[in-house]
Amino acid sequence: MECTSLTYISSTEALRQLMLSKDKDIVKISPKGYALSNGVDFCCVGLESNKGTNYLVQAYGKEARELYAEATMMVNNANTVI
After folding, report:
1. pTM for this one?
2. What DSSP character marks residue 41?
3. SS3 30
4. Cβ-contact 11, 59 below 8 angstroms
5. CA–CA distance, 71 with 44 (Å, rounded to integer)
6. Whole-number Å distance between alpha carbons of 33 and 4
7. Shortest CA distance to 69 belongs to which of 17, 14, 32, 36?
8. Domain layout of the chain by residue ranges
């Protein structure tokens, strides 16, 4: 299994860049308001490409709330396209 790590300014930027290729779908988003046992907000977004490659974008704190909002907006927009 190959593991590649890329660096972005924010998790939402990473998510946007991954979704640009149009061959990936968001398959999992952490529940809204999910927090770790220490109370820090956490969001994890799972993506899968048409070729079967899996991606994972994670964020903590304020960025976790922003990632959740971005990912759910992308999923909602994808579901409303006719």
Report:
1. 0.84
2. B
3. coil
4. yes
5. 10
6. 29
7. 32
8. 11-80
